[in-house]
Specification:
alpha+beta, 193 residues, two-stranded antiparallel ribbon, 38% helix, single chain
Length: 193
């Protein structure tokens, strides 16, 4: 009986190496297909709210490391449309979407667009504030403690973006990396440029 050291030390035939390599490639392809399928956002989620009233919620908020004295409502304020951005500081897509939203905010804020940034329930306020500072978010960051807002808005993947019109009806929702052109077109339907 051979020991495992002897089995490893013995050279393998080219045919056995080829079969082993083929098996490893098949397993790697299968694992990759499973990973892609699991990472793709499922149909539904926040999109299921389109055309329906947005959930009425108010969340605690922090700005510059200080908890604000009152919660901030996710409902449209004073009849203005609201863009709600759910983010997670470790999300690579958030690193491109948040700056795109900030640019839209700069263009449409004067026309009444309200943008709310909601941090993932998996993070604490220190992480949320550090991310906001790094990304240049000047407005308060809402803290989704317990994940109620993400659950009620159907956000399971980040970033999750929800556009609510001035009457409180969800007009559009996106998950994952979203092009600024798509966001701008949706916002433009609710506000003049």
């Amino acid at each position: 009986m051979r020991s495992w050291q002897q089995a490893i030390a013995q050279p393998r035939s080219p045919q056995r190496l080829l079969i082993g390599t083929a098996c490893m490639l098949v397993l790697a392809a299968f694992a990759l297909s499973v990973a892609v399928r699991l990472s793709a956002p499922p149909a539904g989620g926040a999109q299921r709210l389109t055309g329906r009233p947005a959930p009425a919620l108010a969340l605690p908020a922090e700005q510059s490391g200080r908890l604000l004295p009152s919660a901030i409502s996710l409902a449209p304020a004073h009849g203005h449309p609201t863009l709600i951005v759910f983010f997670f500081s470790l999300c690579p897509h958030c690193h491109t979407v948040v700056p795109a939203v900030r640019q839209l905010e700069g263009v449409y804020a004067a026309h009444g667009l309200r943008v709310l940034y909601v941090d993932s329930p998996a993070e604490n306020s220190g992480i949320a504030n550090a991310y906001a500072a790094r990304m240049g978010i000047m407005s308060p960051v809402l803290l989704d403690v317990g994940g109620e807002a993400a659950a009620r808005f159907g956000v399971r993947y980040f970033p999750g973006i929800v556009l609510v019109d001035e009457r409180g009806i969800v007009r559009a929702a996106w998950t994952g990396e979203t092009q600024q052109a798509a966001l701008r077109a949706a916002v433009a339907t609710l506000l003049p440029a």
